[in-house]
Write a structure and sequence with these properties.
Helix content is 32%, strand content 23%. It is an alpha+beta fold and 470 residues long.
Length: 470
């Protein structure tokens, strides 16, 4: 028998994420007009089944009707899930799924592998950062979105996938046969940075998922054992997660009798939510990093830390997701699910951040990351060529320390910069001064390293500076 909790799950849902919440769930109520509505639907289905040139099967019409009903709300956070979509929805929160174990970035035609999870099917099969994914089970990936690519790769544990990849250049293609397995991702990452005479803990929360509370507590115990003098909590690009997880983390830092958030329903009743009354971990120097992709549960965390403890927020204004959704199964077999908005959520001071976001205490732009993009090879590039791709390459070369113009015109200075890069990363025998496919591959590898280097992250560096100076 299924746990009764699986029947009715209350959620805060956000931009890229899935944020489970703590609100009470509501059910559809029958109205007097339901009988007419059902009769009209039955008649419409009968007409289309009998007469439509495009009719294929009744299930597709039924699925379309369900999606259309939800879409008519014109609420971007309300949606209908079939069984596969709902399972994908939950797997992201559980930080465990059957898959390949890579993250990808897209630029132009094909996806580039930007990271490979340790001990995943991808790492065991030899897929590495910088590889280009070309085909999955014979399906060409050219021009496909990340979600389309993910749907082709994902499947039940034990499923076989044939993946064609290119390394170095498109002529160096290999077919790799992999078996999908359970991939578990860490939702909390931590380390200690020593700056001058201070030890600073750095805690990255990628999502507020099912395993996050235990991972967070273990990470904090490790950091505390090293006698840290300050703490940076990074929730940038964190799309949200379980509200119960957010609450447990806030309990760790805050001891307050004030509500940490409210929910407001159609009747304008505001329902307060409180943290537990008990001993919390006190530290004066805590900084929270936020950006425009920090959403929902991340915004609750950041706003509460700012409003109830006056901790500094550094980065950019957050996404601004201030509504609450719930999910209900709509069939006895629990294969069809609807997610819909029931209320607003407000910060501890009663502010509705929807559409506005949570503002940082210190606004910091990521200047060094601006205008950077993965490069795509279409042809060799050389002197007197003019192209947007050349401009993007010039910007990257400049950030990597090679002097060149950045207006898209390939001149002698650009050729010299390309030659210097080729000598450093490809060897002097390949240093031609014009851009080959291998050059694009090596540049993309260096771009991935550049983006992952905290020394290029102005928001992180500002947080370090703030703690050191206080």
């Amino acid at each position: 028998m299924k746990n009764s909790f699986s029947y009715k799950i209350c959620i805060l849902f956000l931009v890229m994420g899935l944020t489970l919440g703590i609100s009470g769930c509501t059910f559809f109520k029958k109205s007097e007009s339901n009988s007419n509505f059902h009769a009209e639907i039955d008649k419409l289905l009968a007409i289309l089944k009998e007469n439509s040139f495009y009719y294929e099967n009744e299930e597709e019409l039924y699925e379309g009707a369900l999606r259309g009903i939800v879409a008519s709300l014109e609420d971007p956070y309300s949606t209908y899930f079939d069984e596969e979509e709902y399972n994908n929805f939950l797997s992201q929160l559980q930080a465990s799924f059957a898959g390949l174990g890579v993250t990808i970035g897209t630029k132009g035609s094909y996806p580039i592998v930007t990271s490979v999870i340790t001990d995943s099917p991808a790492s065991k099969a030899g897929i590495k950062v910088g590889d280009t994914l070309l085909k999955v089970d014979g399906e060409d990936l050219k021009g496909k979105s990340n979600s389309e690519i993910a749907s082709l790769i994902k499947g039940p544990k034990g499923s076989a996938r044939s993946i064609v990849i290119a390394s170095d250049d498109m002529n160096n293609q290999n077919t790799i046969n992999v078996t999908l397995d359970t991939v578990t991702t860490d939702t909390v990452l931590s380390e200690v940075i020593e700056v001058e005479d201070k030890k600073i803990g750095y805690l990255v929360i990628t999502t507020f998922g099912e395993p996050t509370t235990l991972e967070f507590e273990n990470a904090m115990e490790t950091l505390k054992s090293q006698n840290i003098d300050g703490l940076i909590i990074d929730v940038r690009s964190n799309p949200g997660g379980y509200l119960s997880t957010v609450k447990s983390m806030l309990d760790y830092f805050i001891d307050s009798e004030d509500p940490f958030m409210y929910q407001q329903y159609n009747d304008e009743e505001k329902v307060p939510y409180y943290l537990k009354d008990g001993k919390s971990y006190n530290m004066d120097d805590i900084v929270i990093l936020i950006n425009e992709y920090s959403a929902s549960a991340s915004e609750i965390f950041a706003a509460t830390m700012k409003e109830l403890k006056n901790y500094q927020l550094i980065g950019k204004t957050t996404f601004g997701k201030g509504t609450v959704q719930v999910t209900n199964f709509i069939d006895d077999d629990e294969t069809k699910t609807v997610k819909y908005t029931t209320s607003l959520w407000l910060t501890s001071t009663g502010v509705w951040i929807h559409g506005n976001g949570v503002n940082p205490s210190i606004d910091v732009e990521l200047i060094k990351f601006k205008d950077l993009a993965f490069l795509e090879y279409s042809e060799d590039l050389m002197i007197d060529h003019v192209d947007q791709e050349i401009k993007e390459m010039q910007v990257l070369l400049t950030r990597l320390g090679y002097i060149t113009r950045t207006d898209g015109y390939f001149n002698i200075q650009t050729s010299d910069a390309v030659r210097d890069f080729q000598e450093d990363y490809m060897g002097i025998d390949r240093a031609t001064g014009f851009v080959t496919e291998e050059t694009i591959y090596e540049l993309n590898l260096e771009l991935i390293k550049y983006l992952n280097n905290l020394e290029n992250d102005e928001q992180y560096l500002k947080a370090i500076e703030y703690i050191v100076q206080n």
